[in-house]
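Hi team,

Filling in the usual template for the complex we talked about on Friday. All components are listed, including any nucleic acid strands or ligand strings, so the model treats them as one assembly.

SUBMITTER: L.P.
PURPOSE: interface mapping
COMPONENTS: four
RESIDUES: 734
SEQUENCES:
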Amino acid sequence: MNEKDFEGGNRKMTRKDIAKLAGVSVSVVSRALNNSGYVESGKRQKILSIAKEYGYVPHPVAMTLQQARSRQILFFCKDMQNPFNVDLYYGMINAAQERGYLVLYNAAINFDRIRDIYVDGIILQNDSLAAIYAGQYGKNYFLPVVTASFGNRESMAVSIPAVDFDMYKACMSAIAYLRKCGHKYIAYAGPYPRTDSNARSIAWQNEMRPVLGDRMYDYFYGIHYSELGQSKELKEFRSDYMSPFTVKETFYAKGKIAARLFMKRQTSFKATAIICFNDEMAFGMMAELQRCGMKIPDDVSLMSFDCTHQRESHYPTLTDIGVDPRYQGARLANLLIDKIEQKKISYTEKLPIHLFEGDSVKDLSQT
Amino acid sequence: MNEKDFEGGNRKMTRKDIAKLAGVSVSVVSRALNNSGYVESGKRQKILSIAKEYGYVPHPVAMTLQQARSRQILFFCKDMQNPFNVDLYYGMINAAQERGYLVLYNAAINFDRIRDIYVDGIILQNDSLAAIYAGQYGKNYFLPVVTASFGNRESMAVSIPAVDFDMYKACMSAIAYLRKCGHKYIAYAGPYPRTDSNARSIAWQNEMRPVLGDRMYDYFYGIHYSELGQSKELKEFRSDYMSPFTVKETFYAKGKIAARLFMKRQTSFKATAIICFNDEMAFGMMAELQRCGMKIPDDVSLMSFDCTHQRESHYPTLTDIGVDPRYQGARLANLLIDKIEQKKISYTEKLPIHLFEGDSVKDLSQT
DNA sequence: CTGAAAGCGCTTACAG
DNA sequence: CTGAAAGCGCTTACAG
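RESULT (copied from the run log):
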């Protein structure tokens, strides 16, 4: 029996093979390899050196079955086109790695098949997923779950611990910042209808109603089929966002539609700034406004939330209110792992909000 | 014994539980559930209805251990910031789903720990990963592996089946297209030094040497520390791209540096067009050129490869030579699954090359 | 300090 | 058509 039998053969080496080679039982091999329990020092050396020589690798599936834990967690998120989620993911990876966990990503899986993939816990991407999970699926699973939250914590999901970025507060800060820069008529563009309870749009409505009065909704771009009705642009999105499970459109595309609507309405009123739902939507909006001949920020200022790495790769760079998404990702991973390992956790961790200045907002206060 | 014992308890239901409930043995339960072998019809009904009532879900880890196959494949790729890879991934997901496989993504794992995650096969993201895998790790693993390839198939990796996008041909097409549009002095910007054997830069050198002669390398932007030496801009990248395992910088950032160099050199010569290594690099370059006051395509035209979905969310939209990355992803998944299932496969599948016109190239031939 | 045994949840060849 | 048994690769409590 030599290396070839395993490496070149079609069978992987097991602890049984090592045991035979070392003249001991599998129990001893396991103890030596796991560094648990007593093993006579000479035998330990021998076992370790054999394992090394043959390039032995433990079978992760067998260990998982036996220990009922895989040291793998799942990032449940459908939309990796959104750079925010990519950043979130990179944040998780490193934090998890430090604690010995692997973060898997899978965009295809649904809640009802989530047990096809064996993980120790799940990180959900937003409040609506959390609400659905808490309401339907989670009841039968009893798997540790945490969620990223954006100021919309829904009552159903309060049982799910969250790392929260308070978008209500963030949107208020954005408005305050724009005002400081001399902007008074501030528009808002998002992917949901005005009736949606999204924290960003509620903050905007509360704050702008006194200023805009009856004309408030001229300044509101809710790029959603229920809002735009038969609008030609929206036709293609008819069935979108009915469920957080399908991403048929992108925020980019919605940003473009918002830009076109903005250009149309510009004839009758004058917003000097637009707050966008997120970076991705802002990028689409910016590109389309520029195509229409608008200069940013000279003709109109743009702000958004998220603070993705892509902020810097557009011209002009976006001014954002945000948290570093990588930090949020890291906190999420740590929160989940704490829960898995049954440490004490707090149910809602609030992230600090920062302003990241770019070149997309014009200071009118000097003029 | 009722539902509560499992769903509300801390133990998941197993086939043994179903067997007890149905008054049969586990063997019968397995046969009924897997629809294999004989089961008396009445018992089958009973078993299925019990499984349904209690919401029984098979334990994927136990099945994997027993069958030595997980129906999961891994997309090995470090860089999800690059939208090309995101598109590739989405292409894989759907193709794999149709054949009953799940595509996992993990950005943290390295070759030497790849067996920590139990998959039936691996899709590598490019030729250099394939070469390294074939040279070092693959020897001991005997796991089905395929790779995306970009015209650089390295000799070490010929044993790994590939879905190839011929970048040499693609770059020739880009040059031909630009010439048709009246461009003569065409620059090239990429992340590797001039000595690199990357198909794009070789094609460009072969084609432009006769035109640019001694001054060729004034038109070549190899954003790599070995090329730029002590250049201040490159300091931060000193250790980058030494290995395909670490992504310390992004193509965006390199595109910006290329843009700054381009602006410097513009005083002494006049390129009317630039071919960029990929979309991500082109975006960075475009943003920085615009910041420097250049109009695209009026002052300089831009082309690149990849054809990512983000093409459309920048202004102007990029003109690309490419394949639909989602199609390449789908082909990769199918190739790998064919290999896993021991179907006949061809070792190199060549993808057709298309031109995707955007607004980033100016037609000088009319002037 | 050691090894036989039971077990994690499943599958399947085999004897009845 | 059925069920006891062996096995996938590992762990660990227990008797020696």
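MY TAKE: DSSP finds 14 helices and twelve strands in chain B. Residues 167-323+355-366 of chain B form a domain with the Rossmann fold fold (CATH 3.40.50.2300).

Thanks, L.
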